[in-house]
Amino acid sequence: MATAQFLSTHITEQVKMDPNMPLKAIQSHLSEKFEIHVSQSKAMRAKHMANKKIWETSSHNIISSGIISMRCNPDTTVKLEVEIEPNLQVETRKFKRVYICLGSLKKGFRAGKRDLLGLDGTFMKGPFPGQILTAVGVDSNHGIYPVAYAIVEAETTNSWKWFLECLGDDLDLQANSNFTFVSDRQKGIIPAIAKMFPSAEHRFCLRHIQENMKLQWKGQAYKDLLWECAAAYTVPQFKTAMEKLKRFNARCHDWLMKIPLQHWSRAHFTGRCKCDVLLNNMCEVFNKQIVDARDKPIYSCLEYIRVYLMKRIVNVCKVIESKDGPLTPTAQGILDKAKTEASKLHVLFNGEHRYQVSGPMNDQCIVDVRAKTCTCRQWELTGIPCKHAVAANWNMGVNGINVVPEAWVDISYRLTTWKEMYSFKIEPINGRLLWDKTNCPSILLPPKHHKQVGRPKKKRKKSSEEMKQKQVGTSAKLSRKGKTVTCDKCKHAGHNSRTCKGQGGPSNKT
């Protein structure tokens, strides 16, 4: 009578508290409770059934948790979408997707005054496959600032349109908004952004472009040339780098030119967001922080992310309290480096508001202190004065105009802006025992269960570049591919001692 179905009902709470509970612990718990022997296979089936039950019951908690979050955190947005049900009289609805944007994160992102968001998706690892879509910004200290997240059925154009539509409503984005997005060139997100925000600037993550390039052209030389082209701030510098790549490999140059330049070249970026990032690292960092949430049930996954965001704001606030000065530490470091390089430059004043700043290696630019621009375009793209601007600032002091370089730094890098971003806290919520009963007439069912073929994948596929980096360590096992073995018995090459039959060939030993 002690079937796996019966035993699963008695280990549900234990498995819910510890999803990685070992089978031996389950066997010991059940044997002690019922005084019977439980085989390992039966314990494994019972754990699987308990996990499935936990996933199914978690769907019922999404509506209640959404209402509680909105009550405790004002201005929070929770949008739930279910599968279309032909029979409207049925009380049940199947879960499809959910979107959450906490009110404090929404207010903090607006306070940051930087219109830049990285978009990315990562897969769920439980029995109900899905994708976690995230929108992550950059704070005043160049750290990540998550804004919104969602769990959808798949990373498609339709799901990305729905996510961007919800995100646009929260951040007051219109079709003609001058916003900047960074993504990994996923097929579903490119048409979604073009459809929802045609006036937005869409940057492609350069690392993913490099990964696509390595399918045909491998080697450090191609990587260096790609980065030299993408990192150039001006169009002449970009053209020089592209000509260098063309001389190295014309086919690679032609392949790269097929990608629109405004998506990956700094020389063709606008300076609207005051950030010159070429990578989508903000989303990669956030995805790493929530890796333990991806194998949890839907409600537990959402709760894990909310708790992480709550703790992160507290941790950053502790760092902010220990800092002083007008700028954030990262911005101050960039400006100090520009000051060091500015001491080597020569400045010529035109008598109005423009300066000719020259240095070694034909480095000569025009600085306009009224428009706060430099022809090197670093000041325009980053919002932090370049070395030419700092040199011009010092020359203004010689002419009786005293303005410190820190005053020219964009407001998004101010320490006060950083403090304001993290002044909005995420409020805690009660446990399920204290939740009020919802008035929703429908019962939410979990999404369709898809039994995966083979052993479920827990880790993402690593690129060849990551695999090479993994082998750099001293404890790494080096490949023996291409090596010739030598027999310990006869000292001849081509076979080992286990297969030695006195055969040989020329010996490599003297």
Automatic annotation (TrEMBL):
Residues 445-510 are annotated as: Disordered. The keyword Metal-binding applies. GO terms for molecular function: zinc ion binding. InterPro entries: MULE_transposase_dom, Znf_PMZ, Znf_SWIM. PROSITE patterns: ZF_SWIM. Pfam families: MULE (PF10551), SWIM (PF04434). It comes from the Eukaryota. Residues 496-510 have a biased composition (Polar residues). Residues 355-397 form the SWIM-type domain. Keywords: Metal-binding, Zinc, Zinc-finger. This is SWIM-type domain-containing protein. The lineage of its organism: Eukaryota, Viridiplantae, Streptophyta, Embryophyta, Tracheophyta.
